[in-house]
């Protein structure tokens, strides 16, 4: 029984850089079986025995073949087998098995296939079904999702808050293993920036969408500033999608569907009534505007001069009313809230001011953190958005070596930045890397307002791939936006 297992393992490894052999292999064996790396809690291993014409592949194939391994053993969850290509369940209902299988397959394909071969494991029809199902759920969520972890039957829950991941698939897989997978009493809030810079933004975003579809009331995906047409056209995600699904109708379709899904992502969360999370941070109050304009006409001319009105903090009610379904968050005009929430940064200087470095969003001081926490009876703001590169240029604020910083400590509580992409960015022009750790935060029952920080190292070496953007020319952090390009109709 062990013989064909070992033999086929080496076949795939040999063929991973040779397209013709892979093709032959696919014709010979339309379904591949891969060992699953994510064990399932309480799994009784219900995986069906493979049909006789299928092949078996060991995911950990880089290791020397273990002659003593018994692939038919059903007691070790790591021996669960996976089938590719992935198929959408006939009843449209995702299971834990489906989601963990997707994670294992993405890990395997990132190591063994070329980017352009992704459609052979994830056909476009399955992509369509996943994104459509997720989009429907996301678009219905309010701008600020309200998470009540201890309401209902489950008590003693925890909430894991995750910062930027930027397409670093293997680090996300590690994080989910380290924190424990989402389940009835383990909630997840992702603060955005799933794509760009890293080479596996598509896989990363899709596996998070799969979790969202499987556990819509346990997994919450917020929008980051990179979930926009502008950022993805500059920092690699658009090119990544076209490299994987083809620079043709199919690839453009996949990219367009991702953008549509980005528009549906909510902007912020409130956890247990005590913690506010968002990608960038707080946002301004939008003064009542004279809204007399002809219906149906584009209102480009109606621009509120930011200079003419003193800036003040916006309320959660205003956040709930903002129009978030915009491809490029606005930096001018009547609805500046999404731009602020996604792009703002804290400062050590008191007050609220335009974020001139970024060209969009705000800078806010410790006094604003105090005002915001006090006004809404909160204890914590957890935001993301700044990696080691951004923090290098921000005197007065902490470095991102450990993946998190405590930025403001005020009478009502704290402001925290969490960044979950270790050894970031994946591609860097200089040899001298930041070597930062990533971190995630655990909030525990009953109060959910005492953050427990978990720092983690990168999963390296990463599979060798070419970058999808000109990382030597594109500036490190997202400063100095090309606003005219961002204004182009999308
Ligand atoms: Mn960001």
UniProtKB/TrEMBL annotation:
The keyword Hydrolase applies. Keywords: Hydrolase, Manganese, Metal-binding. Its EC number is 3.1.3.16. GO terms for molecular function: metal ion binding; protein serine/threonine phosphatase activity. Residues 222-227 form the Serine/threonine specific protein phosphatases domain. Belongs to the PPP phosphatase family. This is Serine/threonine-protein phosphatase.
């Amino acid at each position: 029984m062990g013989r064909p297992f070992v033999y086929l393992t080496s076949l795939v490894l040999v063929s991973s850089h040779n397209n013709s052999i892979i093709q032959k292999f696919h014709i010979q064996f339309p379904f591949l079986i891969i060992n699953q790396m994510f064990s399932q809690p309480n799994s009784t291993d219900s995986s069906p025995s493979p049909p006789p014409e299928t092949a078996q592949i060991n995911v950990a194939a880089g290791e020397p073949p273990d002659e003593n391994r018994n692939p038919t053993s059903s007691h070790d969850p790591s021996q669960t087998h996976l089938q590719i290509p992935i198929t959408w369940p006939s009843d449209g209902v995702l299971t834990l098995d489906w989601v963990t299988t997707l994670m294992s397959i993405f890990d395997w394909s990132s190591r063994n296939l070329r980017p352009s071969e992704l459609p052979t494991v994830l056909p476009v029809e399955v992509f369509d079904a996943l994104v459509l199902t997720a989009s429907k759920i996301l678009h219905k969520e309010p701008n600020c999702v309200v998470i009540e972890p201890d309401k209902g039957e489950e008590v003693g829950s925890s909430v894991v808050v995750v910062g930027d991941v930027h397409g670093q698939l293997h680090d996300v897989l590690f994080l989910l293993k380290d924190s424990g997978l989402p389940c009835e009493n383990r909630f997840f809030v992702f603060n955005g920036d799933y794509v760009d810079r890293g080479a596996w933004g598509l896989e990363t975003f899709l596996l998070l969408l799969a979790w969202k579809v499987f556990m819509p009331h346990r997994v919450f995906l917020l929008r980051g500033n990179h979930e926009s047409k502008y950022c993805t056209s500059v920092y690699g995600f658009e090119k990544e999608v076209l490299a994987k699904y083809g620079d043709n109708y199919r690839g453009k379709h996949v990219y367009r569907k991702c953008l549509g899904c980005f528009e549906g992502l909510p902007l912020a969360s409130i956890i247990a009534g005590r913690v506010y999370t968002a990608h960038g941070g707080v946002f301004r109050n939008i003064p009542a505007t004279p809204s007399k304009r002809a219906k149906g006409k584009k209102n480009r001319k109606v621009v509120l001069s930011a200079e003419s009105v003193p800036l003040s903090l916006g309320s959660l009610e205003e956040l709930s009313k903002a129009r978030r379904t915009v491809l490029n968050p606005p930096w001018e005009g009547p609805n500046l809230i999404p731009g602020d929430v996604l792009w703002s940064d804290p400062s050590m200087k008191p007050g609220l001011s335009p974020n001139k470095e970024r060209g969009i969003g705000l800078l806010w001081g410790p006094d604003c953190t105090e005002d915001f926490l006090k006004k809404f009876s909160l204890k914590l703001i957890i935001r993301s958005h700044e990696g080691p590169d951004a923090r290098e240029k921000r005197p007065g604020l902490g470095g991102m070596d450990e993946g998190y910083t405590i930025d403001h400590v005020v009478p009502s509580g704290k402001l925290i930045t969490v960044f979950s992409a270790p050894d970031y960015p994946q591609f860097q022009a200089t040899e001298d890397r930041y070597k930062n750790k990533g971190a995630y935060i655990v909030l525990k029952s009953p109060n959910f307002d005492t953050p427990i920080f978990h720092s983690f190292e990168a999963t390296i070496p990463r599979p060798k791939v070419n970058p999808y953007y000109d990382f030597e020319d594109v500036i490190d952090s997202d400063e100095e936006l090309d606003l005219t390009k961002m204004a182009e109709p999308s």
